[in-house]
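Why Replication restart protein PriA? Reviewers of the renewal asked for a concrete example.
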Amino acid sequence: PGLERSPEIRPPEEQTMAIVRVAVAAPLPELFDYRLPAGWLDCEIGRRVLVPFGRGRRLGLVVDRQPESAVADHRLKEIEHCLDDGPLLTPQDLELLNWASAYYHCPPGEALFTALPARLRRADTDFKERRRGWRIPIDARAVDDGLLARAPRQRAVWSILQAHPEGIDEASLREQLGDCRAALRSLERKGLLEPASAEVPLDDGSPPSAGTPAPLPELNAEQQAAVDRIDQTLGFACFLLDGVTGSGKTEVYIRLILNTLARGRQVLVLVPEIGLTPQLAERFAQRIPVERAVLHSALAERERASSWLRAARGSARLVLGTRSAVFTPLPELGLVIVDEEHDVSFKQQDGFRYSARDVAVRRAQMTDCPVLLGSATPSLETLRNAELGRYRHLRLRQRAGGARPPRLLLADIRSQPLVTGLSHALLTRMGEVIEAGNQVLLFLNRRGFSPVLTCHDCGWISVCRHCDARMTLHRGRGRLVCHHCGDQADLPVHCPYCESPDLRPLGQGTERVEDSLRQRFPGIPLARIDRDSTRRRGELERVLTAAQAGAYPILLGTQMLAKGHHLPGVTLVGILDIDHGLYGSDFRAGERMAQLLIQVAGRAGRAELPGTVLVQTRHPNHPYLQQLLRKGYGAFAAAALAERADAALPPFSFQALVRADSREEQFALEFLERARGHAIALAHQGIQVWGPAPASMERRAGRFRAQLLLQSPERAPLHALIRVLLPALRGLSGNRRLRWSIDVDPLEM
Ligand code: ADP
Ligand code: ZN
Ligand code: ZN
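Here is what the prediction returned.
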């Protein structure tokens, strides 16, 4: 139905903008001109259109209108359909997307359509949804429900249906009665109800939470100072809220959100993880009585489109979402908040490789409103911006509500006997904590049973056929699984190499530590939290809620557990293996390690109970660990920044990666060699060209991966180079078996 609608006809004197410029939903660098069909006078900027393209038709978005085109008249095609009742994106939304598309050197069509919720990337929507429903047939309305006296479920359904003669959708019935499909079927068989589909508009709002909001705690002096500084800001400014874990950053957000809403503006809050949204959404729901919209990738397409439309139409005043929510149209935006700004998941790692944090800052600047970046462990980029005075540095040094900071201890595990990765020191403390009725959180960033299966006789190890990676042993599933490409294999009974039956797991994953803990602490409830154990929808929330209520004395998890969750009963945190973070090949490995350590540590002793963090390491004298332990994250970051300055690494220089991959090694390498030639010929002003070099995981999912690094002391010349380099690279890459892309400000090398 949405396809048939065409714009209304206006008097001929207005007929000037006959050409529309369209960003077509495809990874092509150009925009395309189309003619308006005869009789159409307009198709506004920001509207979606269907256009003939190649031999088919494509969805596109109007980004500009002009009286004429440089394309020869006979080659210009006509728009086929103009979708939507009005523009989906405003000129301001387009301005932001244009900027991002240019900055990340991503084709405009790809950038624009990445920003739209999936439902709106299809042409077949008219923003209505047909839902399955039921009603009582007219000739059955007079039936006496005494007939159903012995079928209480059916009678319950029947009485609701009687109250809705026009019909009711099945989802609402289920909300009221739970699963009532059997009762529905019986009633249908008796001829007492019939299907009735109900149409619901997609942007059907969720009503604002009823009741009085929970009272706000009184802010401490540092919190109040932060709120005042930001509230006094008129127009754009970027603030770093650098507050230790549990210092009450979220309370600062809530206060600022309320003040901004009171001024009649909308607020956008970005969080790194889907797992964090329910918790924050719940806290906002209790305190902020306005219509809210939540946006993340675990939502059904319909829900996402609904949130997006409600935000765009201004009915949702507070939008909480993950990465891509940064592009949500918000006509009255007055404040942007990025929580856990250091988190790498703000950077998209494929396609349109934008950083939602950096786009958020730019968006606030374009909107002329304040933006707040919050973290207990700010990224070195952000700290550098604060140092330079571009961002204003606000600090919360103390835990709110009287909670004490955790005590950090190192456990030297060199030549210590370990029980599945747990030292005697850690096990002893665990026993004490459990005895006292408190909780222990163990952190191990490796899921599965064991990271590798090995042959005790010949040394064979389980490697992936497609990647430079080992297959992880998952005993629960009885499989070997590659965590990089997802390939799976049955557990071998004999060594595939020497046929020895003596195959042994080597090293620990969460599954194996769980097994061992269940033996060591029999009868003590334990929750394992990783991607495998929380696969089912809602499972993570369920376990976390129970954990918060103290249901599990032992919590064991991967980095899913490290982020933001408030676990008031935890008094001991054990970090089983920090060492792989100390010597990573990526120059950001140290920064990541420090952030992870501080974030995990932050789960301990958040309430009245003081906490202890025990870090197991074979490198207790490592300067990073020593600095973190003695002086905290701020001192660590200062030292790490000094090292980056010495090495001229970001944030003291700017980088872009040309990435390429192909099944055959030579294609990717040849392409990058030639790219290097072009880059060197075109580069000037101190730009360095490094490589080509193999990616840190050279082979992944059967493809060989390599990269060329461009680095520059200044941003502008780097971008100038990329602008001229890209057309040259497009000319080079005739090879269909080669994939390549450009990654501006790469976070993963
Ligand atoms: P952060 O976001 O920095 O980790 P939160 O905002 O979650 O910190 O605050 C940690 C805990 O302290 C929460 O339970 C919160 O309700 C409480 N809290 C925060 N600010 C105050 C305050 N001013 N007075 C009392 N309790 C507070
Ligand atoms: Zn063998
Ligand atoms: Zn693999």
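The first strand starts at residue 19 and ends at 24. This is the kind of structural detail the renewal will allow us to pursue systematically.
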